[in-house]
Amino acid sequence: MSIAAPSNPKEITLRGIILGILITLVFTAAQVYLGLKVGLTFATSIPAAVISMALLSAFKDATIQENNIVQTIASAAGTLASVIFVLPGLLMIGWWAHVPFWPTFGACAIGGVLGVMYTVPLRRALVSQSNLPYPEGVAAAEVLKVGMASRAGAAEGKAGLRAVIWGALTSALFAAGAAAKLLAAEVSIYFRTGTGATGIGASSSLALIGAGHLMGITVGVAMGVGTIIAWGVLVPLMTSLTPAAAGVDAAGHALGVWSKEVRMIGAGVIGIAAIITLAGLAKPILGGLKSAMDTARKAKLEGAVLDRTEMDMPIFVVGLVTLIALVPAGWLLASFLQGGPLMSLAVPLVAVGVGYILIAGIFAAAVCGYMAGLIGSSNSPVSGIAILTILGAALSVGFVGRSVMGPEVAQALIAFALFVTTVVLAVAVIGNDNLQDLKTGQLVNATPWKQQVGLLIGVAAGSCVVPPVLELLNHANGFVGAPNLDAISNEPLAAPQALLISTLAKGVIGGNLQWNLLGYGVLIGLVLVLINFVLKKSSNDKYSLPPLGVGLAIYLPSAVITPVVIGAVAGWVFDRAVEKRAGGESAKRIGVLVMSGFIVGESLFNVALAGLIVLSGKGEPLAVANSMSEGTTMTIALVVGTAIVWSLYRWSAKNGQAVHQQ
């Protein structure tokens, strides 16, 4: 479906900017909570595009390009929130007791600006002159085209907005049931296996079901395989080698060994999968950079007048903004060291930090951008990038600080390495997002430089939201492993990715990293890479088993992974069931929006609950006294959750059919 492009369509408008910022604020808060609870985030482009189209349809002069700018601004929320994969580590090691606004805002904003700048020169090579599929970018463009093209499209846009609202309301109510203790927060079973133990858990979370649907069947199967490796093989084996202490039940035994040993094996799988993925990308990325530079040079020499749809930010502006951004980056790092035990090493540490942000940031942005094109920004190996970044940062700052090493100095070096990694990760995830958005823009005839400005606006808005939401959750719940000096609730958030990153930093700088467990993970990862290669080759790229997905399932708790796998399988079954019916494609898109609503509703409810915990001073302000057993609340959660998912899938199918008949 082609869109006729006026020579100068309405794109960046005040109403579009305001709407984009409002959606960014809401989605960033949701993403921060989801990332801290389960270690996963979701792409916000498609729900943002649908909300934008439904609201801007009130204006006769709204254009597809204006709606595209709204989703570009809002997409920053889905990615910038990934910095919480690192930041809580500063609370976990006891460096911060509270989340300070300006250092956190600065790390997000500087990293985000650099992420946009680093990927501007890659657009031609990796977007307009590339055959990379960009699954999420293409899907967002398709939603925009359908929504703007016809009466049926407008009807689908309205149905899509209803889908987001229904999904959000039902998941918020379901989460409220868990907060009231009427539904079990987790359905689980643990048992002995001879001298060992194992089990499986599933969080009562519609948000995780939604995340599984959005990730798709390939990642879902990979995570299912990872769960079998972790809980079917490694946990029973390693618990039998480490007998339980007196009085420890099967759940305590299995979870204890998993958290101390099996997780580190999972980290090894993630690390090696990321390294091999990155090694395979070296040639196309270098080729892409060369092509971008050649194109820019040719345009300059020939003095060609570029079409509006090929106009990026001028390379001079990109270079200037990059250099200017490094000044506050240096100031931010210097102020982080102010008054601490590393003051005497401030100059070399700041120099190493800024250099690392510059070089590692370029590398991370290019790799994540390419991966967004290959498998979509949601599936991009951000976890692997974070692991490699913290290892590099810890080695670099540890080398500088080795001359004054002591307990206080070690903690300060770990904190500094985590802070530098936060900035690099912000660079990576926004680079990831920029190219995905630019692909959407290419398909709807948008102006690239206007999108790049839009993403900078989204970065600024998202950076304002991350610190207060993070501090609210820190005050209300605290984090696993942190001193939690001020937490009100006794149910801390797991922040699993931040726990891994801080553990690696401590291990590298303290010299006590469990290299043997990481090594076992590397061996498993190499076998998985080989299996994936054979599978893709023999099926002509039809089937794959992403090693990164397997590694994440070994590393993340089964309570998180099980509902994600269920959501992926349920989504696959739903898509297969409706694809041959009338309005099947519309039904699929509406289903995606229901699942996005699940994530937004549950996450926002839990952010609001954190606010209520802080205001009331009670750890469980909504809990209702009842005499129901744990088994009963588990059964209720299972039945109610299944009924909601089934009903809304059915509703999506009916609405798809209704849209088709318009």
Automatic annotation (TrEMBL):
Q: Where in the cell?
A: Membrane
Membrane-protein topology? Multi-pass membrane protein
Which keywords does this chain's UniProt record carry? Answer: Membrane, Transmembrane, Transmembrane helix, Transport
Q: Where are the transmembrane segments?
A: 12-34, 40-59, 71-95, 101-120, 163-183, 264-282, 315-334, 346-370, 382-400, 412-432, 517-535, 555-578, 590-614, 634-652
What organism does the UniProt record list as the source?
Duganella levis
Family annotation (NCBIfam families): OPT family oligopeptide transporter (TIGR00733), OPT_sfam (TIGR00728)
Under the heading InterPro entries, the entry gives: Oligopep_transpt, OPT, YSL-like
- Asked if the keyword Secreted belongs to this entry, the reply reads no
Identify this protein by name. Answer: Oligopeptide transporter, OPT family
Q: Does the keyword Endoplasmic reticulum apply?
A: no
